[in-house]
């Protein structure tokens, strides 16, 4: 027996009578809970195991989550895995997943996810956290994530992290190979 509110991970459904406002509110809650879960998890590992172990585990978890999320986004949106459009969509959906304020910049040989407001950095600041430098995590995420997004270049690109020191946005720029496939 099936009801309108049942869904499987591969077949999302919209309950009867649910509007776009309901979906937007639900997404806002989900985004907030992802960031909250990360913070709670990190603080508990920090308390139990110390800063070095907590940082190493945080990096491992984010690297794995970014790889998995990239695969799921590609599957759900029917992306090709080669074009600039693919990279832009993956970066857009990752930013939306975390609730960042962002823009996507496409150039002929690269795609940049420019983050103007990072939900994780805001949560760290709101918690008064001074013992965690998010730049270490982001720098460690970049090679693994970009390698998943673009294996042909082995993840070539760069990340410039201006938000933590308030010198500008955080720019995640991945290179696009010459054989970029469909635009």
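^ structure tokens above, recovered residues below v
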């Amino acid at each position: 027996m099936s009801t309108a509110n049942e869904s499987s991970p591969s077949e999302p459904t919209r309950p009867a009578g649910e509007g776009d406002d309901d979906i937007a509110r639900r997404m806002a809650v989900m985004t907030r809970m992802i960031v909250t879960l990360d913070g709670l998890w990190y603080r508990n590992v920090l308390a139990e195991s110390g800063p070095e172990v907590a940082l190493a585990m945080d990096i491992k978890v984010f690297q794995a989550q970014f790889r998995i999320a990239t695969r799921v986004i590609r599957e759900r949106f029917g992306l090709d895995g080669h074009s600039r459009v693919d990279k832009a969509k993956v970066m857009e959906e990752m930013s939306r997943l975390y609730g960042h304020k962002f823009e996507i910049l496409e150039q002929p040989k690269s795609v940049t996810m420019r983050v103007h407001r990072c939900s994780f950095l805001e949560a760290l600041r709101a918690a008064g956290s001074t013992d965690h430098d998010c730049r270490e995590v982001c720098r460690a995420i970049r090679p693994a994530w970009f390698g998943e997004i673009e294996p042909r270049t082995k993840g070539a690109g760069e990340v410039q992290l201006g938000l933590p020191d308030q010198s500008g946005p955080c720019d995640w720029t991945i290179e696009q190979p010459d054989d970029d496939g469909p635009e």
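The longest strand covers residues 110-117.
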